[in-house]
Design brief:
This protein is mainly α and about 100 residues long. Helices cover about 100% and strands about 0% of the residues. The protein has one helix and no strands.
Length: about 100
Amino acid sequence: MGACLFFQYLRRMTEQSDGLQTEAVRLLRKAVWLLRKAVWLLRKAVWLLRKAVSLLRKAVWLLRKAVWLLRKAVWLLREAVCLQDVWVQNLKALSGQKEQN
């Protein structure tokens, strides 16, 4: 009778052990899957950061180009104002010469 109980005990321990091993294997597989997912997400994040840096560089270049164009436009406006002033002075001079004649 004692031997029978001992073998029942061993069988229960073996079944529990098999169950624990199965659970451990399942958890390890899930952990490996989660690690792979994490690595994929990190790679995606690095790619997105590189893309963001590239876009920021492009934006900075475009802003510099816009500033250059604005400066050029201001310079051209100043030139136009100077030419208009000269044109007005010439008109006044011509009208003053006509009145004298």
